[in-house]
Structure prediction request, 341 residues.
Amino acid sequence: MKQLILTVILSMSILMGFGQSDSLSYYLHKGEEAASGRQMQPAYQYYKHAVAIDASNTEALKGLADAAYETRSYIVARETYKKFHELQPKDTFTISRLAELNFNTRQWQDAIDMARKAKMLGFGERFDWLIARSFFQMEQYGSAVEYIERAWKRDSSDAQMPFVAARAFIELSNYRRAAGCYEQALRLDPNNVQWMYEAAMTWSAIPDDARAIPWFEKAIAANHPRTIDFLTNMANSYFGNNQFEKGLPLVEELLQQNPQDLELLYLAGEGYLRAGRHQQAIDSWDKMLAIDKNQARAVYMIGIAYIKKGDDKKGQALCEKAITMDPALSRLRDKRSSFGL
Prediction:
């Protein structure tokens, strides 16, 4: 009796094994058939059933990964390619696809690892740009620049490369290199208005306002929005290059829209003062005090304006009053030369 039961169980196991084998072959065949006809959604389902039957079958894994990729199921594709890669670690197509998928799904370190494996196997030179962008996303800006330079030697036609390099150099506080990279990017993409503005801002941060101004002017000519930030920064560069008669109209334009903006009023006063229009400077800072009587810096600057007008006594008294209001302003006593005194 026991022998009979064992025989029955053994027979059932053998039949189930044959059944599973037949099912696996069926789903693999149907998956291949659907994929060859570019019916990727049915192919995905067939290969999914095949993997459920045998999770180590490389044909099933590869089919499922490819179908998932084609149907934009990128997370499934990535994880399935990983399983296939464990079984076929030197398959070049899978390594390339994993580098791409890891990058596109923000798995930066995994993207780098796959790209470096490709390089190790001798076919990964084209992945230098992917590695560079991954390092940039990981905020490893020095490494990003290193790989951008490698990628640039292979292809110097992609404007995104010097642009990302510029952003990396800004993070490294190397503004002169950043400005040069922006200009390189703009030679390849000369109509990119946002890059024009960023180039201008980078030159002004050096500071080199003489080289910033042309980029501000190109951006405004190319219809960059006349935002508060843009016009304020452009005016500051004009002031920094002693082009007050160009900078002041920009500040006045902004003040028409924001007449109680204290920073704009202060900037206007500074521009008028440096342009030698002392009474207009005083009027601008008086408007600040009408809004907020505790604006000690406005009181101090009015004092400077009176001194430059020749009324030293009144000017000195106002400067001392401002320092009483805000002792931190005493540091400006040592910077009189910046006001032409």
